[in-house]
Amino acid sequence: MTATTYADQLAFDREHLWHPYTSMTSPAPVRLVTGASGARLRVADPARGEVELVDAMSSWWAAIHGYRHPVLDAAVSAQVGDFAHVMFGGLTHAPAIRLGERLVEITPDGLDHVFLADSGSVSVEVALKMVLQHQRGTGRPERTRLLTVRGGYHGDTFHPMSVTDPDGGMHSMWRGVLPEHVFAPQPPAADATGAEVSAWADAVRALVAEHARELAGIVVEPLLQGAGGMHPYPVECLRLLREVADEHDLVLVFDEIATGFGRTGHLFVSELVTPDVLCVGKALTGGYVTLAAVLTNGRIAAGISASESGVLMHGPTFMGNPLACAVALASIDLLLDGDWTAEVDRINRRLTAGLAPLRDLPGVADVRTVGAVGVVQLDHDVDVAGATDASVAAGVWLRPFRDLVYAMPPYVTSDAELDVLLGGITEAVKAG
């Protein structure tokens, strides 16, 4: 029987559909979205019918242009009129070619080989395969471990889980099953002193030297660690990682799935320090269709081709999906044709000023912003249900986790909507 009423749909959802990080036997409550436009979601409310909420999450940081943007809608519609999908094995198509051209053009010089992956987590899988195959192709098959840092998060599939913090991260239950890699200390905070950065650098250098013969590469989220704790850190740490990678013939991977396309105030953090492999996703399609990309340079590509397989050993069914490529191209052009730097700066200034008073609230441990990201860290784990209810009552959709109440709004969010958003964060912090 088809669920028709809001109540029926939610009842079916509760009994049959898994949501991220939830129990099937004791599911967390969900809200039914009935529409979306701009920076707002329309949500069914049992008491009030439907309500509009300012989306502080950009649908997990992807919908940078908001919802139902006419340019992106038109790109999807036009591509459907041609074809929605063809296999990428033995075939190619204009949307993939144009997207590849655009990605090579807007990323740092030298990152001119592009693998179009299914999702952010899969792009990290592919990147780590690149690292390992490159080492095999250059005659160092014994190099099978990776160096990363505490506090990181790289996805939910198995190899990305293995380079996510094994203690403080979300995947500690898989210890003993996942490959064991080498974890350096978490980088110091963005406002760290020179002495703190130097101490961290010394620890990393010593760790790399200790494990150099078995290390294949380094993988980090540059400048801002995302789901591991919304932790910004100094660019000097990235420069140090570039140095030690060069000194020990390691492949440096930047996971810019969350930070790419302007979120930190840089189009890519890789503009500041260039990696050997770059992963992008989330905002790549403006939140319309799942797609990610892995870019690398000619040196790494040559090493992969020299490995015993002679090819990069990955090829998903929906690789280079034309719909996703078409809307990604439109999203990139929409971003670059507008004044995205001014928009991100505007959001940063509003978040910085609006969140500052929350430092004085009971239970608040820290308040920080970077680019179009605002974070309130509590001194205890958030009461997610209570904080969510409080923010929704204030007209805002938030998704707190661990000890964090944070916002990564769409760049199109107006000043008035940002004020509503700040009110929602305040209520969530008070309730959390």
From TrEMBL:
Assembly description: Homodimer.
CC cofactor: pyridoxal 5'-phosphate
Entries under InterPro entries matching the protein: Aminotrans_3, Aminotrans_3_PPA_site, BioA, PyrdxlP-dep_Trfase, PyrdxlP-dep_Trfase_major, PyrdxlP-dep_Trfase_small
Keywords of the record: Aminotransferase, Biotin biosynthesis, Cytoplasm, Pyridoxal phosphate, S-adenosyl-L-methionine, Transferase
Xref: Gene3D superfamilies: Aspartate Aminotransferase, domain 1, Type I PLP-dependent aspartate aminotransferase-like (Major domain)
Major enzyme class: transferase
Main subcellular location of this protein, as a coarse class: cytoplasm
Site (Participates in the substrate recognition with KAPA and in a stacking interaction with the adenine ring of SAM) location in chain: 21
Enzyme Commission code(s) on record: 2.6.1.62
Pathway(s) where this gene product acts: Cofactor biosynthesis; biotin biosynthesis; 7,8-diaminononanoate from 8-amino-7-oxononanoate (SAM route): step 1/1
Native source organism of the sequence: Nocardioides panacisoli
Top-level taxon of origin: Bacteria
Pfam family, one: Aminotran_3
Binding residue positions for substrate: 60, 153, 282, 315, 399
Family, as annotated: Belongs to the class-III pyridoxal-phosphate-dependent aminotransferase family. BioA subfamily.
CDD domains to which the protein is assigned, alphabetical: OAT_like
Functional description taken from the UniProt entry: Catalyzes the transfer of the alpha-amino group from S-adenosyl-L-methionine (SAM) to 7-keto-8-aminopelargonic acid (KAPA) to form 7,8-diaminopelargonic acid (DAPA). It is the only aminotransferase known to utilize SAM as an amino donor.
Binding site residues for pyridoxal 5'-phosphate: 120-121, 255, 316-317
N6-(pyridoxal phosphate)lysine, modified sites: 282
Protein known as: Adenosylmethionine-8-amino-7-oxononanoate aminotransferase
Catalytic activity: (8S)-8-amino-7-oxononanoate + S-adenosyl-L-methionine = S-adenosyl-4-methylsulfanyl-2-oxobutanoate + (7R,8S)-7,8-diammoniononanoate
Subcellular location field: Cytoplasm
